[in-house]
Amino acid sequence: DDKVALIVTNFGAGVASGHVPLLGDLPHAEAYDFVDELNGVSYHRTRQSSGVRGLYVRLDPAQAHVFIVHPHQP
Question: pLDDT value at position 7?
Fold first, then answer.
């Protein structure tokens, strides 16, 4: 189907943050829900905000996000 998985990991010894560019990999939709399968938290982002700089992430050492990205259904 039109879901995308995104895995972001911090293998470093310090806090890491940055933007993950991904707009070209997302199915066409006006907005998306990024559901983190590791902690059950969901983040809603618009296509425009995801496309400008990418998805912002911040991770403590040895932490990760495993996002399943769904087109947002209002």
Answer: 95
56 three-state secondary structure: strand
Q: What is the helix (H) or strand (E) element at residue 52, kind and residue range? A: helix 47-52
Looking up tokens 């990205």 gives 69
Helix, strand, coil tally for the chain in percent (to 5): 10, 45, 40
CB proximity list for 39: less than 8 A, separation 6 or greater = none
Confidence of residue 2 (pLDDT cuts 50, 70, 90): low
Joined together, the tokens standing for residue 70 give: 């769904």
Residue 34: strand pairing partners: 43, 69
3-52 pLDDT, tens digit each:
789 999 999 999 999 999 886 778 888 999 999 999 999 999 988 887 77
